[in-house]
Amino acid sequence: MTGKARQTKSTIDEDEVARFSAMADQWWDPTGKFKPLHKFNPVRLAYIKQEVCRQFERDPKAADAFNGLRFLDIGCGGGLLSEPMARLGADVVGADPSETNIKIARLHMESSGLEIDYRAQTAEDLAAADETFDVVLNMEVVEHVADVPLFLQATSSMVRPGGLMFVATINRTLKAYALAIVGAEYVLRWLPKGTHSYEKLVRPSEIEGPLGTAGLKIIDRSGVSYNPVTDIWSRSRDMDVNYMMLAERADKS
């Protein structure tokens, strides 16, 4: 029998999949329901490019800085991260449990003239097939899965020696509840009501533990804060609401 033993449990939250599938036609509309993600994307992209180029000794000014690197964008949605990675030369697998999201991602990829391996698959299925990657992008996903430790175990197992995993999510704090849920969903209406559930938000320690158990080492932590005056997201020291973490698997050599 080839591949790892298939997980009997699932990380998929069917309600979350249905919610995002229902909004799939708006993934690429910068003024639609995913407007906050479009606003948030530049800070994510800058962080990914900076750290990948540092780890793999690439020139960040090069148009093909990621050439030869294999990326997994897990929970890729409509491809908002997959496409920029492919433009930088990466070999990208974009995976999402929603068939609808994958269809939208493929349509936009074709119109953009890119080649991305989009799959309607779960993290545990990819892991069971012995898939491995230089970089795993685990961005704004963990707060939507049914089993965070199992999800992190599956995604961590696919990071190659010397490889990286990026995790971005929302902290489970009262400040995050006030700003990311009440403020963003009910007052400012940046996001549809119910996009996030306070109980499913994830504290940094709840990510660090499973990643450490899986053999990954946290090498960077960064908060992400919003400036309402400039309407810009930027990295900060404040991890109370949005934050990003970077982990690596030690090179065996």
Description:
There is one protein chain. Helix 6 (148-156) crosses helix 8 (204-213). Mean pLDDT is 92; it is low at 1-7. The chain has helices at residues 14-22, 35-55, 82-87, 99-112, 123-128, 148-156, 174-187, 204-213; strands at 70-74, 91-95, 117-119, 133-139, 159-170, 216-227, 232-236, 242-249. 35% of the residues lie in helices and 23% in strands. The chain has eight helices and eight strands, in the order H-H-E-H-E-H-E-H-E-H-E-H-H-E-E-E. The protein is of the alpha/beta class. Strands 3-2-1-4-5-8-6-7 form an eight-stranded mixed β-sheet. The two termini are 29 Å apart.
Largest sheet: 8 strands, mixed
- Percent of residues in helices: 25-40%
Q: What's the total number of strands?
A: 8
Give the helices and strands as they follow along the chain. HHEHEHEHEHEHHEEE
Q: What Rg is obtained from the alpha carbons, in whole angstroms? A: 17 Å
| Count, helices | 8
Rough outline: globular
**Strand percentage, roughly?**
15-25%
Side by side, the strands of the main sheet go 3-2-1-4-5-8-6-7
Helix/strand-derived category reads: alpha/beta
The overall pLDDT average reads: 92
Q: Identify low-pLDDT runs.
A: 1-7
Question: What is the terminal separation in angstroms?
Answer: 29 Å
In oligomeric terms, what are we looking at? single chain
